[in-house]
């Protein structure tokens, strides 16, 4: 399938708007899960480490399934995937309102909602990259602010809904809001052309490559038909010469022969189709593994997957646990001018937009910009144990939120590293490791608290992980950033030719 040239505008701005709304609606509740986390602690009475699994699964499962999500978007397109995933997110949120225990939430909120969010994230990023080229950084920055604005609004909204309608009513209302994703998905018009011969080639030049499998199929069926005719002729010669030759006996024999011939043709077609399908799937698997090995030969890409894994182990827990950190530091609720999660959310939106704009400047090295955000955020995480007041926690929450906005330039860095042709494949792999880090980070921090009864060691660990990831990526990028701009060789078109053995 050949894509049209990116329009860098036009209907692309509609794509940006609906992608923004999609991320706003699907990620609002999972990112603001810190408000629900405190309620679940009191409702189910489980430990902080175990309860943290709900929020970490909601953010991590979708990323862990990124290779599958990328395959779904590549196979079915962004529009149907978005509509289907909207049902998943809304259904999972509504189902969570009936949760009898924390283990039910692992499935309904963690897995169902998380997988739906992963599908929606991949769909919105992929279709935005297809519609934009020179303004891709700005477009990605705009759509990624949707999740941050959702975090800012949903943190206050869920607290208000819990106060008026309780935890169950809050989840039902939030799930109903998520149904608006279906309307957003209906506007995601695919940017693609049909599979017809390109103008540069005549139809006759394209026929052998495109229809070689079908001509081979016809040849195979012709061989089977010849075999059938030889068998029928031998049967006729073996018939007794004394058999009557009147029309009453001749017509049933001819009808039986035609039925046998039709049946054998159908069997031959089905057998051939199964063989070709098995060979095609095996070849597709080999090509996928080969492209994966090629990706990891790029040392910047290899460092990038380590960095994103460590970043999500250490960088995600603050958005989930910051409210509980303030309560553990004996900060009074009267001092809360604004929820700390809301501060993280609004600053993340600003950071995504600001970093997205900076990524479009030619004189700014986007990879070094991403590395700078990692190192600075690692230092900010290590400073959280020293914050004992609402003011200092608010400042650190704002810094962490601003730097978490580097999610908007991560697809941009990935595209520059591997090329637009391999974006879906590479991004799926990287999001898998990001999801693994998202799933492990909050439970690890919660277990540290259950073990030490303080968050100090937990956030030292988080800061060290983010710092280490940034330094590894910096060492890999310093001598060879120029190699990242060289596109990998474009994969050959997936044309498979097979020689089918004739039946004996």
TrEMBL record:
Keywords per UniProt: Cell membrane, Membrane, Transmembrane, Transmembrane helix
Subcellular localization(s) per the UniProt record: Cell membrane
One cellular component (GO) term of this entry: plasma membrane
Keyword Transmembrane helix tagged: yes
Domain Major facilitator superfamily (MFS) profile span(s) in chain numbering: 15-481
Topology versus the membrane: Multi-pass membrane protein
Basic and acidic residues composition-biased segments: 224-238, 245-260
Residue segments, region Disordered: 224-260
UniProt GO molecular function: creatine transmembrane transporter activity; monocarboxylic acid transmembrane transporter activity
Main location: membrane
Pfam family, one: MFS_1
Xref: InterPro entries: MCT9, MFS, MFS_dom, MFS_trans_sf, Proton-linked_MCT
Sequence intervals crossing the membrane: 12-38, 50-73, 80-98, 104-125, 137-156, 162-182, 300-316, 336-355, 367-387, 393-414, 426-445, 457-478
Family per similarity comment: Belongs to the major facilitator superfamily. Monocarboxylate porter (TC 2.A.1.13) family.
PANTHER family reported in the protein's UniProt record: MONOCARBOXYLATE TRANSPORTER, MONOCARBOXYLATE TRANSPORTER 9
Entry function: Extracellular pH-and Na(+)-sensitive low-affinity creatine transporter. Also functions as a pH-independent carnitine efflux transporter.
UniProt-recorded name of the protein: Monocarboxylate transporter 9
Organism encoding this protein: Erinaceus europaeus (Western European hedgehog)
Annotated gene: SLC16A9
């Amino acid at each position: 399938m050949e894509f049209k040239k990116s329009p860098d505008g036009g209907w692309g701005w509609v794509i940006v708007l609906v992608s923004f709304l999609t991320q706003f609606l699907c990620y609002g509740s999972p990112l603001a899960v810190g408000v629900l986390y405190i309620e679940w602690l009191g409702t189910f009475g489980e430990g902080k480490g175990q309860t943290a699994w709900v929020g970490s699964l909601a953010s991590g499962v979708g990323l862990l399934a990124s290779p599958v999500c990328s395959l779904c978007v590549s196979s079915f397109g962004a529009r149907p995937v978005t509509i289907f995933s909207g049902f998943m997110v809304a259904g999972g949120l509504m189902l969570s309102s009936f949760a009898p225990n924390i283990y039910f939430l692992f499935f309904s909120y963690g897995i169902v909602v998380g997988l739906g969010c992963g599908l929606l994230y991949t769909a919105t990023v992929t279709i935005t990259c297809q519609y934009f080229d020179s303004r891709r950084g700005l477009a990605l920055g705009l759509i990624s602010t949707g999740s941050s604005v959702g975090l800012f609004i949903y943190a206050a909204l869920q607290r208000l809904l819990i106060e008026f309608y309780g935890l169950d009513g809050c989840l039902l209302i939030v799930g109903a809001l998520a149904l608006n994703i279906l309307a957003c998905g209906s506007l995601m018009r695919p940017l693609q052309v049909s599979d017809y011969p390109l103008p540069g080639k005549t139809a006759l030049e394209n026929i052998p490559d495109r229809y070689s499998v079908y001509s081979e199929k016809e040849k195979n069926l012709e061989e089977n038909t010849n075999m059938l005719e030889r068998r029928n002729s031998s049967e006729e010669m073996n018939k007794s010469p004394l058999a009557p030759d009147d029309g009453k006996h001749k017509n049933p024999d001819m009808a039986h022969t035609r039925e046998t011939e039709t049946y054998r043709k159908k069997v031959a077609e089905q057998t051939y189709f199964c063989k070709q399908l098995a060979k095609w799937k095996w070849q597709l698997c080999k090509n996928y593994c080969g492209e994966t090995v090629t990706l990891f030969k790029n040392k910047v890409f290899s460092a990038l997957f380590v960095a994103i894994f460590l970043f999500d182990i250490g960088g995600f827990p603050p958005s989930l646990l910051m409210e509980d950190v303030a309560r553990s530091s004996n900060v009074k609720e009267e001092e809360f001018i604004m929820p700390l999660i809301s501060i993280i959310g609004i600053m993340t939106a600003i950071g995504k937009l600001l970093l997205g704009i900076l990524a479009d400047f030619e004189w700014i090295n986007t990879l070094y910009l991403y590395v700078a955000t990692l190192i600075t955020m690692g230092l900010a995480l290590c400073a959280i144990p020293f914050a004992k007041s609402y003011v200092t926690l608010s400042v650190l929450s704002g810094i962490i939120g601003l730097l978490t906005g580097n999610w908007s330039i991560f697809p941009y860095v990935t595209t520059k590293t591997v090329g637009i042709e391999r974006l879906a494949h590479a991004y799926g792999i990287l999001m898998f490791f990001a999801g693994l880090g998202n799933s492990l980070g909050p439970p690890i921090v919660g277990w540290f608290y259950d073990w030490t009864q303080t968050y100090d060691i937990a956030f030292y660990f988080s800061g060290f992980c983010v710092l280490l990831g940034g330094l590894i990526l910096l060492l890999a990028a310093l001598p060879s950033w120029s190699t990242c701009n060289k596109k990998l060789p474009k994969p050959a078109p997936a044309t498979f030719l097979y020689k089918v053995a004739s039946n004996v």
